[in-house]
Design brief:
Elements: E1 25-26, E2 32-36, E3 46-47, E4 54-55, E5 60-63, E6 72-73, E7 78-88, E8 93-102, H1 122-131, H2 144-147, E9 158-163, H3 172-179, H4 181-195, E10 199-205, H5 209-219, E11 225-230, H6 239-247, E12 262-266, H7 267-279, E13 285-291, E14 299-304, H8 309-316, E15 324-329, E16 336-337, E17 351-356, H9 373-377, H10 384-392, H11 396-401, H12 412-416, H13 423-441
Parallel strand pairs: 1-14, 9-10, 9-12, 10-11, 13-17
Antiparallel strand pairs: 2-8, 3-5, 4-7, 5-6, 7-8, 13-14, 15-16, 15-17
Length: 442
């Protein structure tokens, strides 16, 4: 069977063997959680509790604002002990967080739910997903209920389930497909009922043979669903690249997948939809890979959202501090370096990666030699070396004209650069400046 891919991309060391065969284990419930009101893309949720309130696990504590926003729920049963401004690495700023101290075992507050999801109307299912605060768990954290509302002038030809998981080290989606296949297929059936696509594709990189076989066996009798083996290449799991690889359709610059009749959902997001609709559980816990040579007991774990990184690492153990080079939310290609392990986790956390100094070789940066290696690997067809020149010169207007806002910040250009220039980080800064200017101009 042929494998599918896209133009460009790189092949960094996978390092998935560290955790790929580690079954998902549940981490201890933490004593304190910090729950950001910006646990999603869009407007912050509005706190609806106050200090001193008793809250149950799954209870709504932050109500979605109008427009693009998502609900936030308590991930433990206990007392609200603070509403504080806390550094949020996902936004790069201080954001409001509700602090809950656990006082007892879980007392759950459930959503409306039913094993026979077809007892609900399509609109009712979308409402349950909204009520449950489900967001994209591949990292984007876009509110899922909004993605499920298809504009009247659009049609969903293809529903794509993203099981690529191309980032090095991370294996939680692989394990989810291997351990929770029945639940994921049920989640796909729920989306099929709501969206009624013409065809459903499940894309899995071919470095996950067990997941491919398990999912293939689960969909063998469903003619509408096709499993698509993907070439193992980074960033195969990026939304636009996945769409191109599977459907050969190109999302236009500044456009959305629905503009080409396509919607994409990560497998962990699919599980969260299932958990909300069938089990009545809001999004208060999820799976995570904790890996890297700095971790003593690397593996895949189930944890409560809002747990501090320190609490996660306390359980798995890490090497001596002087041996650690960096700790990342996510993997080494797109991960966010954290300034302190006391920072909380958030809904989009699919990994914590601890890298040692031996693992990260310090390399000297040299001037650009215009070799165009970055052009060859850019999955968006950009000219990174030229965009870097424009960024350094603060020619934001020209950078915008040359497509810098289309950069997905995958880091492929930085990885391949023989001069060791961190092009991607430069583009992140320039994009923020351009977007801030656009916002001021309305």
């Amino acid at each position: 069977m042929p494998t599918f891919t896209f133009k460009g991309g790189v092949h960094p060391p996978q390092r998935k063997d560290i955790t790929r065969d580690k079954e998902i284990q549940s981490l201890p419930v933490p004593d304190v959680v910090y729950l950001f009101m910006t646990n999603h893309v869009g407007a912050p949720a509005k706190p609806i509790v106050k200090v001193g309130d008793f809250v149950k696990t799954g209870q709504l504590i932050g109500e979605a604002a109008n427009g693009i926003s998502a609900n936030v729920h308590s991930s433990v049963t206990g007392e609200v002990v603070g509403i504080e401004s806390v550094i949020n690495a996902s936004t790069g700023r201080r954001d409001q967080a509700i602090v809950v101290k656990r006082t007892s075992e879980d007392q759950w507050e459930y959503l409306s739910h039913d094993k026979d999801f077809k007892k609900f109307s399509k609109e009712e299912i979308i409402q349950i997903v909204k009520d449950g605060g489900v967001v994209g768990l591949g990292g984007a954290m876009f509110p899922t209920h909004i993605k499920m509302i298809v504009p009247n002038n659009k049609v969903v030809d293809y529903l794509i389930i993203n099981g690529a998981e191309c980032e090095p080290y991370i294996t939680i989606d692989d394990r989810m497909m291997r351990e929770k296949a029945d639940e994921i297929i049920k989640g796909i059936e729920i989306l099929d009922y709501v969206l009624d696509p013409k065809k459903i594709f499940i894309g899995i990189e071919n470095n996950k043979p067990e997941a491919i076989e398990i999912i293939r066996n689960n969909v063998r009798n469903n003619a509408k669903i096709k499993l698509v083996p993907l070439q193992t290449k980074y960033p195969q799991g990026a939304e636009k690249q996945l769409i191109t690889a599977i459907t050969k359709r190109e999302v236009p610059e500044g456009g959305l997948p629905i503009d080409v009749g396509t919607l994409v959902f990560n497998v962990s997001t699919i599980y969260a939809i299932y958990d909300a609709v069938v089990n009545g559980k809001p999004l208060v816990e999820r799976g995570i890979t904790i890996s890297g040579s700095g971790v003593k007991r690397p593996g895949n774990y189930w944890f409560r959202i809002g747990t501090t990184v320190a609490d996660l690492l306390k359980y798995v153990g890490i090497v001596e501090e002087d041996k650690i080079d960096r700790i990342l939310y996510g993997g080494p290609m797109m991960g966010i370096p954290i300034s302190s392990i006391d920072l909380p986790t958030f809904k989009g956390n699919n990994a914590i990666t601890v890298l040692t100094k031996e693992e990260i070789l310090k390399r000297r940066t040299y001037p650009c030699i215009r070799c165009a290696s970055c052009v060859e690997v850019c999955p968006m067809g950009l000219q990174p070396y030229y965009l870097k020149k424009l960024s350094d010169a603060r020619r934001n207007d020209l950078a915008e004209e040359n497509g810098i806002l289309s950069c997905i910040e995958c880091g492929a250009c930085s990885y391949i650069c023989p001069s060791n220039i961190d092009l991607s980080r430069s583009f992140q800064t320039t994009k923020k400046v351009i977007q801030a200017i656009q916002k001021r101009r309305g």
